[in-house]
Design a protein that fits this description.
Elements lengths: L3 H13 L6 H13 L13 H14 L3 E5 L5 H11 L4 E4 L3 H4 L10 E3 L9 E5 L2 E3 L4 E5 L14 E7 L3 E2 L2 H11 L7 E4 L4 E2 L7 E2 L6 E7 L2
Parallel strand pairs: 1-12, 2-3, 2-4, 4-7, 5-8, 7-12
Antiparallel strand pairs: 5-6, 6-9, 10-11
Length: about 220
């Protein structure tokens, strides 16, 4: 029985007027898939770590993300609580990532914190990130049992913890780091550059068109 996958690939081959790969051509494809060779990497991302951090901050700001600097991880609960208080947010849906749950959230009396998948109507979410990509100010987030993808898209405000040591120069470095992190890819890898926006309607910029209206990056110095 022909699978849907084979049918789709067969249609693509016919459209390209190609036959099934065999011999050396097939070996070359298998080698490329196995070794993951890097393509041309933009020169602007090939920088020392401190300059990569500065580039990430600049590009993230240009994409309308907001950055809040953290001097210590222990300062995260207080910083999140203060941000929510200033912005009239009294409920927060948080990832159950141990990096967050291990912190002392006691004494935060202005904020109701729950650990679950996000739902339509949630005001704000808090997640961790896998890495930051300097060349475009992009966050790479991985799905998993402690980090459901809904947290990245449904709430109006998305707060993300990012360590400076997690910032890399180029996309190729981010993927290489992910492959070193685990033999198995997560079900979902989200690349997020700034808050959601669209100018499809009358060429007027609308924030939060397909996701959060605000992206707050909590950048930890480490």
């Amino acid at each position: 029985m022909t699978s849907s996958r084979n049918q789709i690939l067969g249609n693509i081959r016919r459209g390209l007027q190609r036959d099934l790969l065999t011999g050396d051509a097939l070996d070359q494809v298998r080698t490329r898939l196995r070794e993951h060779p890097a393509n041309t990497v933009p020169a602007r991302s090939q920088l020392p770590q401190d300059q990569q951090i500065a580039l990430f901050e600049s590009m993230a700001n240009e994409a309308a993300a907001e950055l809040i600097e953290l001097k210590t991880l222990e300062a995260l609960p207080g910083t999140v609580a203060e941000f929510c208080r200033e912005n009239g947010i009294d409920q927060l849906v948080s990832a159950s990532d141990p990096a967050l749950t291990a912190l002392d959230w006691s004494g935060i009396d202005n904020l109701e914190i729950t650990h679950r998948v996000a739902q339509a109507g949630d005001s704000a979410s808090l997640t961790t990130s896998f890495c930051g990509i300097a060349e475009t100010g992009t966050l790479m987030l991985l799905s998993g049992p402690h980090s459901p993808t809904t947290l990245n898209f449904l709430p109006d405000t998305h707060l993300v913890l990012l360590k400076q040591s997690q910032i890399v120069g180029a996309y190729e470095e981010a993927w290489a780091r992910l492959r070193q992190h685990s033999d198995a890819m997560p079900r979902t890898v989200n690349m997020i550059t700034g808050p959601s926006r669209s100018a499809d309607i009358e060429q007027k910029l609308q924030m939060g068109a397909h996701g959060p209206k605000r992206l707050i990056i909590l950048l930890l110095r480490d």
